[in-house]
Write a structure and sequence with these properties.
- The protein is α+β, with helices and mostly antiparallel strands.
- The chain has helices at about 55-60, 65-80, 80-85, 95-110, 160-165, 185-195, 245-255, 275-280, 295-300, 310-315, 320-335, 350, 430-445; strands at about 25, 45, 50, 90-95, 120-125, 130-135, 140-145, 150, 200, 205-210, 220, 230-235, 265-270, 305, 370-385, 385-390, 395, 405-410.
- The strands form 6 sheets. Strands 10, 11, 12, 13, 14 and 15 form a 6-stranded antiparallel beta sheet that branches.
- Helix 1 crosses helix 2 and helix 10 crosses helix 11.
- The chain is globular and about 70 Å long.
């Protein structure tokens, strides 16, 4: 039931387009499971208990059966006694963990080695063809020769500050990305060194993020921004975007609205005590289970809290008069169910992550009950989407549009087949899987 991100486009659907890997028993991987990078903290309950997309939506939007779902998940984790004595890690792999876990299991069954602690540094080119790579393995320089071809699948450059500032629209910062820590872009630069063309280097899989002190990655506001009783405002205390639209639309809206006279980077997510009581936000569970006094000092330093909107505005450094006016408008919209400024909650995509118990619009709620809360929001991303230009066979192309023999690129180190759009969930992984298959098939049969 995951809606397309452009629901107004002819052919869009609100269901069945996206697919998710089935949960997997990580015990099948043996000791290899401990080499797998843990999932992003926001893709799990308490940062440790894995949840599927459906479970996450049920819990975060307080859908029917949410409490029983939570109890079952916690009980399953706690009662997995053998594993609790070994590790805090959940052996029920979900989401990306299930996808990568199944891929690793397939490699194990076929006796395909996977080298960790190995960094590719440059390509070896002989007579115009890529015939291998130079790398560092466990601190030692090595050369690896490829008989058929080299397939780049190294991710984007979201963690490379220099590349972000060179290519992405500003302002930008690597601390704002929710992407993988290992996506530092050197392989893209190595491909450019052997003549590869690039495209869409100024694009990313955008999403509004918050950065919690002490955490290695930013958290993306996917569900939080859709729930009723919240809004995003600029430095002037005014709303500037439909908060419940797709995360890429919200972030592009932040960048487009960012003007010297009314900065929207950072923006500010504002919500009240009723929202705080019912819904999670970032690392904070609803206050009915996880009250403010129980928060860690780093979380308390991250979120601002005040008894009035005017006081909150002062703490955030934004216009208090306009903030109060924006809240009054939201109160009005919550009553009528119609957002007269940005049409929040009008589309099927908006409502997907709303609270279905709230009427007349599951995305609109009053911001009137003290205390009030505010958090800085940045134009972040899930990863960058620009990279090596390829053809239909996943072969890398040079600046003249000609194939570079022996070199293939898939995933976020290649120029996205989706162009400058983000049509639906899975727009990164699905093409990576499809073109990964195509690359393997093409290079081994030619």
């Amino acid at each position: 039931y995951y809606a397309d991100m452009y629901p107004e486009t002819p052919g869009a659907t609100w269901q069945w387009r996206a697919h998710e890997a089935k949960p997997m028993n990580g015990n099948l991987l043996g000791e290899e499971i401990h080499k797998m990078r843990r999932q992003h903290p926001q893709t799990s309950m308490f940062g440790i208990i894995g949840w599927t997309a459906d479970e996450a939506t049920i819990l975060q939007t307080r859908a029917k059966g949410w409490f029983l779902t939570a109890v079952k998940m916690v009980a399953r984790y706690v009662l997995d006694i053998p594993w609790r004595f070994r590790t805090t890690r959940d052996r029920r792999l979900v989401l990306g963990g299930a996808l990568v876990g199944a891929l690793r299991l397939s490699a194990i069954e076929r006796a395909i080695p996977v080298w960790c602690n190995t960094c590719a540094e440059s390509f070896i080119k002989e007579d115009g063809r890529i015939v291998g790579i130079e790398a560092t393995k466990d601190g030692k320089k090595i050369r690896i020769r490829a008989r058929k071809g080299v397939v780049m699948s190294s991710g984007g450059f979201e963690k490379n500050e220099a590349m972000r500032k060179q290519y992405l629209p500003g302002p930008t910062d690597k601390s704002w990305t929710a992407g993988s820590p290992g996506n530092t872009g050197e392989t893209i630069e190595a491909a450019v060194d052997v003549g590869s063309a690039t495209r869409f280097m100024d694009e990313a899989w955008w999403g509004p993020t918050v950065f919690v002190p002490g955490e290695p990655q930013a958290r993306m506001l996917i569900i939080e921004k859709n729930l009723p009783g919240s809004m995003m405002v600029n430095k002037n205390g005014k709303r500037f975007v439909n908060e419940s639209s797709s995360y890429t639309k919200v972030t592009k809206g932040m960048l487009q609205a960012n003007q010297p006279e009314s900065p929207s980077v950072p923006a500010y997510c504002i919500f009240d005590a009723d929202y705080r009581y019912k819904y999670p936000f970032g690392p904070m569970l609803p206050s009915q289970f996880h009250p403010d006094w129980a928060q860690s000092s780093r979380v308390k330093s991250w979120i601002k809290k005040a008894d009035t909107l005017a006081e909150l505005a002062e703490k955030l450094g934004i216009n208090g008069v306009n903030l109060e006016a924006s809240a009054r408008k939201m109160d009005q919209y919550a009553t009528t169910g119609i957002d007269e400024e940005f049409q929040r909650g009008d589309s099927t995509h908006d409502r997907m992550y709303g609270d279905q118990n709230v009427e007349p619009n599951p995305c609109l709620g009053s911001i009137a009950k003290p205390p009030f809360y505010g958090v800085e929001v940045f134009p972040g991303d899930l990863g960058t989407k620009g990279g090596v230009e390829t053809n239909e066979n996943s072969q890398a192309l040079d600046t003249d549009g000609q194939v570079i023999p022996g070199l293939y690129a898939i995933g976020n180190c290649s120029a996205s087949v989706m162009g400058r759009t983000y049509p639906a969930s899975g727009s990164t992984l699905a093409p990576a899987m499809v073109f990964g298959y195509i690359a393997a098939d093409h290079c081994t049969s030619n």
